[in-house]
Amino acid sequence: xxxxxxxxxxxxxxxxxxxxxxxxxxxxxxxxxxxxxxxxxxxxxxxxxxxxxxxxxxxxxxxxxxxxxxxxxxxxxxxxxxxxxxxxxxxxxxxxxxxxxxxxxxxxxxxxxxxxxxxxxxxxxxxxxxxxxxxxxxxxxxxxxxxxxxxxxxxxxxxxxxxxxxxxxxxxxxxxxxxxxxxxxxxxxxxxxxxxxxxxxxxxxxxxxxxxxxxxxxxxx
Length: 221
Ligand code: IBG
Description:
Elements: E1 6-9, H1 17-25, E2 31-34, H2 38-46, E3 57-60, E4 63-66, H3 68-78, H4 86-108, H5 114-143, H6 155-170, H7 179-189, H8 192-198, H9 210-220
Parallel strand pairs: 1-2
Antiparallel strand pairs: 1-3, 3-4
The structure holds gamma-glutamyl[S-(2-iodobenzyl)cysteinyl]glycine.
């Protein structure tokens, strides 16, 4: 058996994408086992692999881990992407939770009913511009460092870059009023492990198209 973590999810972003990002940023190779049908989800649910009958599930270090946030925390702790002390970790958690909230809004957009889509997107963009991005712009301005917490690369930086790119997919000029976030984006994108993940052919998943959405709907909803 290989020692690589094994990711169980459908072949799309959804809730697994931040986990893919974090492993890639840590320079960890991983395998993916794609759930293609409702039956293969049911099989995992009935064979006892999923503690709460849900994916994402990641096989790592002899565990079958579920719950996205728990998985992210484990990977961040294991690969030293979680600050140098409890207070830095608390700050990273606050930032990361906010980013998960925004991620949830952006990620769930394609799954909204047609008549709710426009309003959903407008709300996500409004929250990004008026609630979340000003905070991270100010953090970077106030301490003048390259990374969000403790002048050291952490999961917060990885999750922020992911969310900045997702937000730009929704509104290409969304960073226009955030010069330090633009600089941050360029700098973090150049970290070798991240740069590699951003290249075509990596395990990063594309923006879902209508076919991907229908497929995910059939499996999960
Ligand atoms: N709190 C859990 C976590 O964070 O891991 C939630 C996990 C979850 O909602 N999993 C869904 C699932 O397994 C798949 S992601 N559903 C099967 C079931 O029986 O509950 C579904 C999703 C997609 C895209 I795809 C956007 C939002 C959710």
